[in-house]
Amino acid sequence: MRAPRLRVLVVDDDEDDYILIRDMLAEIEGTSYSLEWCANSESGLEQLRRGGHDVYLVDYLLGGRNGLDLIETVSREGLSRAFIILTGRGNHAVDVAALAAGASDYLVKGRLDAERLDRSIRYAVDHLHFIETLSDSERRHRLLFDQSPVPLLVFDPLNLLILVANEAGRQQYGWKELGLVGQSLATLFTPPEQARFLSLLRDGQLEFGKAQLWGHRRADGQRLKVEAIFHPLQFRGNEAMLVYLQDITARYEAEARMHLLERAVQSTGNGIVIADAAAPDLPITFVNRAFERMTGYAAAEVLGHNCRFLNGTEKNEGERAQIRHALHEGGEFSGLLRNVRKNGEVFWNQLYISRSAMRPARYRTTSACSTTSPASATPRPSSPMPPGTTAAPAWCAIR
């Protein structure tokens, strides 16, 4: 049976991002979406207050405002909404702040694909439904607790014994046959994290209602990274605590790899440029420090511009025609160009272009290499590199 149509509002001041999200959702099979767009925080806040949508995709940066401000404003007014924060670049601090503000997920636009977006939206809707239903009645609470796809536990804060656990919790921790009920919550933590958790709980410093990162372990010893949210409640007439546990091991490891890659990109002596092939005129979205040193241009001066400014007065007509052909056909290119630094000095740029399989066909990745040696006085761009010059690679990716 076809899933009901989900009403989605995108609050983002960049129409290109809205169009990209629209195209991704159009690829989803089995789920129907009704999509609308607000281009500024004022109209976005008005729509959030009306509550006419199932989920809200809110950009972290909205002109001069912060997207988290909208979420916090709505939350202070006592309104329940399903929020997902969008951002142009991953940032762990923003991730934590978004979850603390009430967002159900935090998505980096450059790493987004249709499957992940669909899963995040459905999860946000389910999560909001869970939170709203939890307060209705004990009977409905128990039913939703048992059927929730998110691991949930209730434990006694005095002796840490787990009083009840849903099936998702038993599956996540590998206790399906033995059962989690009656076990100490501390057994789910890695040894170093046990001490931290017990200390915070003992000193009354365990924060409620905020996502916190913990190191957990399964029954078989496998380690997990888990986001936990603790809520005090009454359970069968006694003080207890509900804990919501989301396994983010895959996301945590992916972000760690991305951080390592970013450090490598910034530490290399090769100049690296990333440009967006999905946007008109292939605007630059990232340059590393080596590029700044090699060209004399600061990142702020080149972001949003096409790479052609490096040509200066140099024509490079033959090579540029080959580059255009390679980009259009998704083929490869290698050639030597004369480019110009910010100070007017001419330098040799050894350029390489190759197709990438990192995104769908409409996205391409190219790589480029530049030299730091002074250029020859020879006026022809296709002239051989002068004797004595040396190449220092600089990579340029177009996604």
Annotation keywords:
399 residues, alpha/beta, Rossmann fold, Beta-Lactamase, 3 domains, five-stranded antiparallel sheet, disordered C terminus
Order of helices and strands: EHEHEEEHEHEHHEEHHEEEHEEHHHEEE
**The top level CATH class name of the largest domain:** Alpha Beta
Overall average pLDDT? 80
Sheet/helix structural class: alpha/beta
H/I helix tally: 12
Helix content: 25-40%
What percent of residues are in strands? 15-25%
Count of strand segments: 17
* Unreliable residue stretches: 357-399
Shape: elongated
CATH architecture of the largest domain: 2-Layer Sandwich
Helix-strand blueprint:
Layout: E1 6-11, H1 15-26, E2 33-38, H2 41-50, E3 55-59, E4 61-62, E5 65-66, H3 67-76, E6 83-87, H4 92-101, E7 105-108, H5 114-134, H6 138-147, E8 152-155, E9 162-165, H7 167-173, H8 191-202, E10 212-217, E11 223-235, E12 238-247, H9 249-267, E13 273-275, E14 284-287, H10 289-295, H11 299-302, H12 317-329, E15 333-340, E16 346-353, E17 396-398
Parallel strand pairs: 1-2, 1-3, 3-6, 6-7, 13-17
Antiparallel strand pairs: 4-5, 8-9, 8-12, 10-11, 11-12, 13-14, 15-16
Helix pairs in contact: 2-3
